[in-house]
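In this section we walk through a basic example: taking a raw amino acid sequence and producing a predicted 3D structure, encoded as discrete structure tokens. The instruction is simple. Fold the sequence below.
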Amino acid sequence: MAYENIFVSQNGHIRTITINRPNQLNALNKQTISELNQALDEANQDSGTGVVILTGSGEKAFVAGADIKEFADFSVAEGRELAAQGQKILFSFIENMTTPVIAAVNGFALGGGLELAMASHIRIASSNAKMGLPEVSLGVIPGYGGTQRLTQLVGRGKANEMIFTAGMIPADEAKAWGLVNHVCAPEELLDLANELANKILKNSGTAIASAIRAVNALYAEGGQAGFDTEVEEFGKCFGTADFKEGTGAFIEKRKPNFRG
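The resulting token sequence is shown next.
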């Protein structure tokens, strides 16, 4: 299938999906999310694909966030639907794939980009990577699983710090906190991803699929309330003055003036 915003390539049993919107730092818009869903679903159903590598084009960004202009004028109901649909067709979809997904994070992984990496089964990063969830600086919260998966990966205290400050952390700090598994030089990133993929391919694909389901089950039952709450609260943010101010300031390229 031909895609506009992603590239798909196959090398043996490894499928690489590259998000390709370099002029927008690979930001996620509706079309890109839809194309990723189709490409990932196809990979998951292909018996000839044992591992998926997910990355971004260029060295500047894995995914620098969501496309703010697409939802700056959304209502509460539209915001809730945005989060619910995004989680369903991409972020939770990746997490529940039975084909393992390695996120090869090159450059910025912010907002939806970090959420995309966290939904993947394994994360590796180039040494120039920077990661964060800046949503509160726009008057909204992470809506694609960020409040839940970040807490699962790094613990409540560090997750709160990253979310509340809207700051970025470098790759070495992300590794120290368990947010990524490995850090390497930018030019070695895809080689390392393929090396990990080949190690995985030596093992039973059916057993790995079972392992994915078992690991996910740890969070599924008790954790769903957290995701549901995130969807609800994300939607509510779209009815606030801070959201209008935050997204307006972003689009107008000025600092926001939040009044709470």
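Looking at the output, two observations stand out. The CA atoms of residues 134 and 166 lie 4 Å apart. The mean pLDDT is 94. In the next section we compare this with other chains.
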